[in-house]
Each structure stands twice: as C-alpha cells, then as structure tokens.
Design a protein that fits this description.
Elements (H helix, E strand, L loop, with lengths): L4 E2 L1 H7 L4 E5 L21 E2 L20 H10 L8 E5 L6 H10 L5 E4 L2 H7 L26 E2 L1 H7 L5 E5 L3 H4 L19 E2 L6 E2 L2 E2 L2 H10 L7 E5 L6 H10 L5 E4 L2 H5 L11
Parallel strand pairs: 1-5, 2-3, 2-4, 4-5, 6-12, 7-8, 7-11, 11-12
Antiparallel strand pairs: 9-10
Length: 276
C-alpha cells in the first residue's frame, strides 16, 4: 500500500495480519488523559510514547528516544521489520500520527494510520474489547534513523532564512500570533520567524482527514510548496505530525519534524520569536 491511511473496513478484514497499536496522551494543561478509552479494537497493543518510548532524560515532553532505546521497545512489542503496523487513537486523528512518524523516521517501511480512529471503528459496528493485548516480544525491527526526518532547534534556526525550507506551525492562529497564553507554563507567546501557520484542525473533519482535493487546496492556499523541505512544529511535536501525514498523502517527499517544537522554542529566550 502506498497510501498512509487505512479505513475501518479494511482493518476489519486484515486484523489478524497487522500489528495494531493503540495510542493515547496526557493533556498538557491538567495532566489528565486527553483521550479516555475503556474499550479497544481487538488485538491492540499499547504504544506509550509519553512515559516509555521516549527520552526519559529530556526535560521536554515525549522527546524521541535514541535509536537503541527505540529498537528495544519496538522489539519488545513483537514488531518485525516486515510487520504491517496500524496506529489508531481514541479521538480519530490526533496522537496516532505521532507514532506513525516515529516509526517512519526510524526506518519502518510499513506503517499506517486508521482514519477516524476508534470512533469510526465503533460507528461502523465493529467489535471492541475491554482488554489490550500483552506484548510477547521477539520482534526483529532495528531502527535505522532517516536523516533530516527530525530537526533540532539549531537546524530550525538555520532553516529560517533558507528559501528551500518552509517551517509550518500546526498551532491555532491565536497561539501562533501570541494573542493567547501558551497552555504550558513559562513559555513565550508568538512563533518562529518566517514560519507559516496551518492549524491542524483545518485538515480534519469529524475525526477524519478531509479528502485529497480539499487537502491540496488547503496546502496551496497556505503557500506550501511540494518542492521545498517542510519542517513542521506545534506545541510538543504531536499535532505537527498531522501536517506531515497530510503532506505524505499529497505526495510530499521532503518532510521533517521539529521534535522540540514550541515546548523548547518558547522556553529558550536565545531563540528568536515574532508575533507579526
């Protein structure tokens, strides 16, 4: 499959052939689970990118782990290099693209996102379970990080004035323009100079991606160029991956995630910001 999305019907027909990953995350404001679930799609494994499969030594939220740590955790889930992996979350399209990009950036070739997530699965009447599957280990996947799939702050600084690079911010317009305070304490308001604001919500409708033509129109209206390297950012590197997934659907080839995103940029007074 070349398309990064699968639908519930396809998943129901291939459930025993895929490794299915359930993803959730914590609300940065109140510390509570933002995606609550007491049911799951059968055969689901939990992929915890906030407290387990992340750099636990980083002061930033859910920072990408080292390739060694990533390999160990993914192998523990029983994932092989040839496994077909499908990721879903409880909102529809929210945190699942983060795990999709983690696997893609570490070199896994066969990873997809369930469009509509758990709500779509339930709406179509498919079976659910109250239990997650326990991992059995023994996977053979070995991380092979793809160069430039992840950018650090200094690489983003260097990209600000490069014409062939476009920095895309997935936060709301109010946050981008510094009109409201950031949800995380201690962060400045504003955005990275020369960045483009594309709120991720413009790409989603009722938990699903809008169709190809609509996606293409949104990207065109925001001046996003398929021939340039796209570097996405958001609050903490999660909703930025929704833009990366949309870009992948549209056939973009030069994609990068600023992993630290505004959690890092907004906290570091040495990094430039603007509100214009």
């Amino acid at each position: 499959m070349n398309h990064p999305l699968v639908n519930s019907k396809w998943l129901s027909q291939n459930l025993e052939k895929v490794t299915l990953l359930h993803v959730t995350m914590v609300n940065p404001v109140n510390g509570k689970a933002g995606e609550l679930s007491d049911v799951y799609i059968p055969t689901s494994l939990s992929f915890d990118f906030e407290k387990k499969i992340c750099d636990l030594s980083s002061p930033l939220p859910h920072t990408m782990p080292s390739s060694q740590q990533f390999t160990q955790n993914v192998q523990a889930l029983g994932i092989n290099s040839e496994s077909t992996v499908v990721v879903y979350d409880d909102v529809g399209i929210f945190s699942a693209p983060r795990v999709w990009w983690m696997l893609k950036s570490m070199g896994h070739q066969h990873v997809y996102v369930l469009d509509g997530g758990l709500p779509a699965w339930i709406d179509q009447g498919f079976e659910v379970t109250s239990q997650l599957r326990q991992p059995n280990g023994g996977g053979d996947f070995v991380a092979a990080p793809i160069p430039e799939s992840l950018f650090n702050a200094q690489q983003v600084v260097g990209s600000i004035d490069i014409a062939e690079h476009q920095i895309i911010d997935a936060r709301s317009s109010a946050r981008f323009h510094g009109m409201v305070a950031e949800p995380r304490e201690g962060l400045r308001s504003g955005h990275i100079p020369n960045s483009i604001n594309l709120p991720f919500t413009k790409l989603i409708k009722e938990g699903h991606f809008i169709d190809y033509e609509e996606l293409n129109n949104v990207f065109t209206q925001h001046g996003i160029d398929k021939n340039k390297r796209i570097i996405t950012s958001c609050g903490s590197g999660v909703t930025a991956t929704i833009i990366l997934l949309a870009a992948d659907i549209l056939g973009f080839n030069f994609l990068s995630l600023y992993d630290g995103s505004w959690s890092e940029w907004g906290a570091n007074k040495a990094l430039p910001i603007t509100n214009c």
